[in-house]
Amino acid sequence: MNVSWESVAAVLGLTVPVVAALWEFVLAGRKRLGYRVQLDTTIRDSAASGPETTVLQRMQWDGTNLRDPSVVLLRIENAGWSPVVAGDYVAPANDPVGITIAFPGRRVVGMTVTERSPQVPPTFFVPGAEGFETTGRVVKLPKVILNRRAHYKVLAVLEREEGFTEPEFPEPEVTAGVVGGVRGGNIKKTAYYPFASRQVRWLLAALIVVGATQSALTFAGGRGLGNRLAFSDGPKSDGRPQLLPRPVALSLFTLVVHEDAGVRDLSLRQVRDIYAGRVTNWSQVKGNDVPVRLVSRNPGSGTRTTLERQVLAGRALPAVTTADCAGLAPDRPGRCEVGGTATLLDTVASTPGALGHSEVGAASAHTGVRQVRIDGYPATLEGADEGAYPYWQTEIAYTYGEPPADSIAAGFLRYLADEVGKDVIRSKGHRPCSELDKPLLCRPDGA
Questions:
Q1: What is the pLDDT of residues 164-188, one digit of tens each?
Q2: CATH numbers and ranges of domains, the chain
Q3: Quick one: CA dihedral 137, 31, 358, 192, positive or negative?
Q4: Stated pTM of the model
């Protein structure tokens, strides 16, 4: 049997993303505790000069000056895709301590929790709470319940131990474990990857190599760009006559809010006033007395572009007030951006007063957010057909010229048009264009 290099490249092109998805969402998706050392500095490092130096060096504990104080800030986080509850910690059931942090060469003179996700109860960290204590060089933390992506931060003030003469302190030693977790369930030091984990980035790099190989082979075989397929929300820009559009589905989008916003319906004018900064508290639109916090997708997102174009009448979103949504101030309005729909929905669900935007299918499957009607209309095709619901867009497949009939691109377009493909489209909350009165336009009747 003769196997062409193009076939091999095509198989690899399918295999690599499948492996990446399995790694990220099956293996890495299990319970996983992580920590980051966000600050570890001595007072001499942070106050080497200036009038504040002598003040910091006079830090005291029990009336005694600290000789060589240092400060450490650690972030404890749920780095997996499943919640961590008290029963998941490896420690015995009668032991309230879930995590221990040791500081070799230093003793703990004070600690506090400086930040926690909104869904992390503060009762875990009140003075005298079981499992929340210090002993010598060790900080003990309780079996905190951590939902997906939840975190808290611990700040410790330390003093050099007598007899420890090394110029640099060893890194903190964090010990914990969860039952059924990744790599035995032991807590791991994590790093921030805004796009994907290290393993997945290696796999994606391999995918790029495979894609480049396949491109070279298809060019050599005379197929060229006609075998390439891209999807976009809405029509293409001018000046690209070689791109041929094929409407695939009508996508319905929705606004989503945190439960405590206290709203279920907003007029189109109220939505525009919120995004224009004229409404900054939900009480102004008969909701609860909570500041409005906008959680948006990054530029280029289809839900964001459609929101600006069709709901906000072309008006851009207000300026970002913080680069990290966890940094949104609890007592005033603000806006942050995230990369994906899942992250947006999780952020809205964990941020009091949050308002975001999403595909209908993803929002309906998420139990932590509430969809918002616009002028009394929910995100349905009927509302869009009547011209009353404005938040929708046409999903279009583009090819560079006509794809060869035996190409992967042509085969995939045929798949989307058959019943199995249309079932997949419907399962994501979209409507196949072939089911509309004008499939080639793929727009609601009232649009």
A1: 999 889 999 999 999 877 667 788 8
A2: 29-189 (2.60.40), 227-447 (3.40.190.10)
A3: positive
A4: 0.50
